[in-house]
């Protein structure tokens, strides 16, 4: 838009002025024209339209232009022709000015729109990045689904109840992690005997166990280890091509650097061996689960010396026996260094896990991690199908039938699940775990983090636990979908074959009808009920239509890879939790599962942290005693539960050393990877830890002087008081459980009261 229009005219000046006044009379602010001292024929008009000057000569136009520029005006020059009258020319130029004004109005509108969009984007960016820091530093502000609900009860860290629920396990306070070599330990021999290429298949805990085993095997055979290939994380499974196998889950550089003093780790085979592998010219071994060192020294080592390369296929979650002879004890400590130091998760995964831990700790309250351990394979292997109803039981039975056909199980298809449960062979249901925790004294506002990549039975099994505790969360509650998608990387939208094509059957006439003779002949059989996609879609749709489980689709393969990342995040959170309780400690092969690895890591890193190891057989018996009135209990029953959970922290270690450690060393890395610190105590010497608690940790190695050890003062009177408190009646426990004065297992008569919402359960501490 122009502010000044300068018109050069050869006609009568007064005629041009009158024409201009007539044409734009509505916009002129003054009635008379002003001819200033600008020279002959130069006139200005105080108008709001862009027409201000009409001049007769070039000299006058220069003066008008100078004044216009001095006032910051925009100028448009034109000249009339002799054949046009001033009236016609001014009218024509007014139209030009109007169209020019409209153009600039549109341009200014577009500029304003762009500025508005820019302002909105700036606001969103500021809100995003400033909100992230607010969430991390302020517990009351959150953008996630979890909105903490806390009661007004002040649980002081110095109180006796806090010490019982969250405090350290005193008999284990003198244990410290120590996985460094203790004898003469040579570095890797540069003149190794060849390369070991590994293919690993399995879930999170199987992969972690297998990696630790193959590192120990490489050290045993003095061979160079190629970065293991994880079958679940190859690009053919539909995951991002940015990550390569091992690097999808773990940090390759950290792995290589941390083990540089133990073995030689390389990222790939030499070119000649790569060609030989493509031609299937490399010897391949499939070692059995828990193979002995003799197997590798007698069978694998000679072939390795001959061909300089071998390939190992590890499928069962462990290729080296857990318990090794005493002269190979350094290999056990090497396993610890691999699992607890060398195996660091990929940077994006590690950062997200640490971020979730900070968000859980932002409230200033401790939190408990709970792993249900309810996977389809575990339920099928242990015969727990009848613990569920409807389609879940059918799915479990299908899986058990598959295991029987593949000789994974030698038992029968039909198993009494209730009997298995009474034997302690089935997982504790979330409802049962919630009752145990409430009976032990955890209040309803306790923060419970639910871990595990698979929860068979769905979220409906978690409803009772959510009803008992207000702050039950998982990874989806503590991070945004965008944060989760970042750890996946860019993934192509690959569409694989659907199950529906094999399930929906076409109506066809039977063969006898087609080849039948002339009429009369019987009518064809009535067509079957048509199958529509909505009848069979979903993960359960094939159960009533097929005898065997269909092949996995690309999307399901991708979900399996994602599950590894989910469990990696849960692993980080569970290890850092203030307390941990497992629902089950066995997988679909009868081996220690994810929860066992977590408990082993906690035993190594922070042995004094509260880690419950309940005896499922005893717990099931306690729950069956009040099965008819599960939400009613008396003081005797509550005391029994508290006594058992308190003892399980210590007695569970002895059971783990006898049952879990022979199958997985990482589930119980004591005493090989621990040492005794100098605990200053007046009543209990450090050497009496095992004898006092009747456990078989057998830790007798004193920590080196360079290790910083903490000093603890014993409080025998307080320990005795806490033990006595277990037998006392709880004055506030009636808010959740009604405590009777009888000694029986049931609460009868006046002792029976329905469980109410509990704000605080003191657990006998007064």
Describe the structure.
The protein has 766 residues and is an alpha/beta fold. Among the domains are: 4-101, no CATH class; 176-344, Rossmann fold (3-Layer(aba) Sandwich), CATH 3.40.50. It contains 27 helices and 17 strands. Strands 6, 7, 8, 9, 10 and 11 form a 6-stranded parallel β-sheet that branches. The chain has a 5-stranded parallel β-sheet with strand order 14-13-12-15-16. A 4-stranded mixed β-sheet has the order 2-3-1-4, with helices on both faces. Helix 23 (594-605) links the parallel strand 15 (579-582) and strand 16. It is globular, with a radius of gyration of 40 Å. It starts with a strand and ends in a 41-residue tail after the last helix. The relative contact order is 0.11. It holds the Pfam family O-FucT. This is O-fucosyltransferase family protein. Keywords: Carbohydrate metabolism, Fucose metabolism, Glycoprotein, Glycosyltransferase, Membrane, Signal-anchor, Transferase, Transmembrane, Transmembrane helix. Residues 739-766 are annotated as: Disordered. Pathway: Glycan metabolism.
């Amino acid at each position: 838009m122009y502010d000044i229009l300068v018109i050069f005219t050869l006609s009568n000046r007064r005629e041009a002025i009158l024409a201009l006044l007539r044409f734009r009379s509505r916009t002129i602010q003054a009635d008379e024209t002003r001819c200033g001292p600008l020279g002959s024929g130069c006139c200005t008009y105080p108008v709001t339209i862009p027409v201000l000057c009409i001049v007769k000569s070039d000299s006058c136009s220069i003066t008008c232009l100078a004044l216009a520029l001095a006032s910051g005006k925009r100028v448009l020059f034109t000249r009339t022709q002799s054949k046009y009258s001033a009236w016609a020319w001014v009218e024509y130029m007014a139209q030009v000015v109007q169209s020019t004004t409209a153009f600039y109005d549109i341009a200014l509108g577009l500029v304003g729109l762009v500025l508005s969009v820019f302002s909105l984007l700036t606001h969103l960016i500021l809100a995003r990045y400033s909100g992230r820091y607010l969430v991390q530093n302020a517990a009351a502000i959150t953008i996630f689904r979890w909105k903490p609900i806390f009661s007004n009860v002040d649980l002081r860290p110095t109180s006796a109840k806090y010490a019982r629920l969250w405090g350290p396990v005193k008999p284990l306070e003198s244990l410290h992690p120590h996985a460094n070599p203790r004898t003469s330990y040579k570095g890797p021999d540069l003149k190794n005997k060849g390369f070991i290429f590994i293919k690993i298949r399995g879930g999170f805990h199987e992969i972690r166990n297998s990696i630790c085993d193959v590192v120990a095997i490489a050290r045993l055979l003095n061979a160079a280890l190629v970065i293991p290939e994880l079958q679940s994380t190859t690009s053919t499974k539909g995951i991002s091509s940015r990550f390569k196998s091992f690097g999808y889950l773990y940090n390759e550089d950290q792995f290589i650097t941390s083990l540089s003093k133990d073995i030689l780790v390389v990222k790939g085979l030499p070119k000649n061996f790569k060609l030989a592998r493509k031609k299937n010219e490399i010897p391949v071994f499939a070692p059995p689960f828990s193979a002995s060192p003799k197997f590798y020294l007698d069978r694998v080592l000679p072939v390795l010396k001959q061909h300089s390369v071998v390939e190992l296929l590890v499928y069962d979650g462990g290729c080296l026996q857990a318990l090794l002879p005493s002269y190979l004890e350094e290999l056990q400590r090497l396993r610890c260094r691999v699992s607890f130091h060398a195996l660091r998760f990929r940077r994006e995964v590690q950062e997200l896990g640490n971020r979730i831990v900070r968000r859980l700790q932002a409230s200033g309250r401790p939190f408990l991690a709970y792993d249900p351990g309810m996977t389809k394979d575990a339920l099928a292997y242990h015969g727990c199908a009848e613990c569920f109803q409807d389609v879940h039981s059918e799915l479990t039975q299908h899986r058990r039938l598959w295991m029987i056909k593949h000789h994974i199980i030698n038992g029968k298809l039909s198993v009494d699940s209730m009997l298995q449960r009474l034997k302690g062979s089935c997982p504790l249901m979330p409802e049962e775990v919630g009752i145990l925790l409430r009976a032990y004294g955890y209040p309803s506002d306790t923060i419970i983090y639910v871990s595990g990549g698979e929860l068979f039975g769905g979220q409906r099994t978690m409803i009772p636990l959510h009803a008992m505790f207000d702050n039950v969360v998982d990874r989806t509650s503590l991070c945004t979908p965008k944060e989760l998608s970042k750890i996946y990387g860019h993934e192509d939208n690959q569409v694989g074959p659907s199950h529906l094509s094999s399930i929906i059957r076409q109506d066809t006439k039977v063969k006898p009808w087609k080849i039948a003779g002339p009429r009369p002949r019987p009518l064809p059989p009535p067509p079957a009920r048509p199958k529509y996609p909505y009848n069979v879609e979903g993960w359960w749709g094939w159960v009533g239509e097929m005898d065997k489980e269909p092949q996995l689709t690309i999307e399901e393969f991708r979900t399996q890879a994602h599950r590894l990342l989910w469990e990696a995040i849960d692993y980080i959170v569970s290890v850092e939790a203030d307390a941990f309780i497992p629902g089950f400690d066995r997988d679909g092969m009868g081996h220690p599962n994810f929860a066992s690895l977590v408990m082993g890591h906690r035993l190594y890193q922070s042995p004094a942290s509260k880690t419950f190891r309940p005896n499922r057989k005893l717990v099931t018996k306690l729950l069956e005693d009040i099965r008819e009135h599960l939400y009613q209990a008396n003081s005797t029953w509550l005391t029994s539960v508290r006594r058992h959970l308190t003892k399980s922290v210590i007695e569970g270690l002895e059971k783990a050393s006898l049952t879990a450690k022979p199958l997985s060393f990482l589930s119980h890395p004591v005493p090989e990877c621990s040492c005794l610190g100098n605990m200053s105590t007046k009543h209990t010497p450090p050497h009496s830890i095992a004898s006092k608690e009747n456990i078989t940790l057998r830790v007798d190695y004193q920590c080196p002087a360079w290790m910083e050890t903490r000093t603890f003062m014993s409080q025998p009177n307080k320990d005795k008081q806490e033990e006595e408190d277990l037998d006392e009646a709880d004055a506030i426990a009636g808010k959740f459980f009604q405590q009777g004065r009888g000694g029986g297992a049931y609460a009868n008569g006046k002792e029976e009261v329905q469980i109410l919402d509990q704000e605080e359960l003191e657990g006998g501490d007064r």
